[in-house]
Amino acid sequence: MDDTNRGQENAHPPAIVEVRNLTKRFGAKLVLDNVSVSIEKGKTTVIIGPSGCGKTVLIKHLIVLIRPSSGQVYFEGRRIDHLSERQLSRVRTHFGYLFQEGALFDSMTVAENILFPIRQNYRVKNWHQIEDVVKAKLAIVGLDGFQNYYPARLSGGQRKRVALARAIALNPEVILYDEPTTGLDPIRSDIINELILKLERELGVTTVVVTHDMKSAYKVADRIIMLHNGKMIADGDADHIRNHPHPVVQQFINGQVGEDDLAVLRMNGSAGSAQFLPRDFEE
């Protein structure tokens, strides 16, 4: 049995989110090629792979921010990819999404950013109670007291933590993280890792993380899936991935350039021929 089938046939029930035979094309470009994944409830699934392999496209399908070219998406056993946007708005309240750059609203305070999904989905009557909710969400990520700050006053790590507080504003059952440690130094990255673990442990959420940061992947993952050229080529726990026989997996997790890429670099010109002096462009 190959590794992809091993991952699919030994899916870990109960699945809270599932994609079946998912294919996505953008014009002539095939991004996801017949991918099937079951996401186990209460666990952390990490999706790794090189840039452009379809990681972010896959997790956007989980809440139907992108609709499949073919295949189906299920949440708690109910198919959702064919629902209208109005129907999907209710489904999406069960999800939190941490965008790669945080995607905070610069014109809103920290508190207003966290309130945004609440205002979008509910008619608020008790605003004093809502202030307590904001305070509690910020306390979870270690930023209570920052309610009146604007994003421009925050560090990159603080912005990510505020965005995470917003992602959990509606008490989601599933949190999706798109490259949560990108652009952060190792210490701030590890703070995000610890928060991912904290939310899984204390809130019992299901977690899906897209990342190229292997240190982060090994720390938070119950299960790691690797995509390559739109297909799953590896699926297992951290030890399984570390010892995986596929050369593409080993190149990725060890940060090694493949021979094909090296060949292109060696044959396409030299550094010397690309040098110039300012006077070369003067008359």
Could you walk me through the main structural features you see in this protein, from its secondary elements to its overall organization?
- The chain has helices at residues 3-9, 55-62, 85-92, 110-121, 127-140, 156-167, 186-203, 214-220, 238-242, 247-253, 259-267, and strands at 15-26, 29-40, 44-48, 70-75, 78-79, 95-98, 174-178, 206-210, 223-228, 231-236.
- Mean pLDDT is 88; it is low at 4-11.
- The protein is built from eleven helices and ten strands.
- The chain folds into two domains: 3-94 and 172-258, P-loop containing nucleotide triphosphate hydrolases (Rossmann fold, 3-Layer(aba) Sandwich), CATH 3.40.50; 109-170, no CATH class.
- The protein is globular.
- The longest helix has 18 residues, at 186-203.
- The strands form two sheets. It has a six-stranded mixed β-sheet, with helices on both faces. It has a four-stranded antiparallel β-sheet with strand order 2-1-4-5, covered by helices on one side.
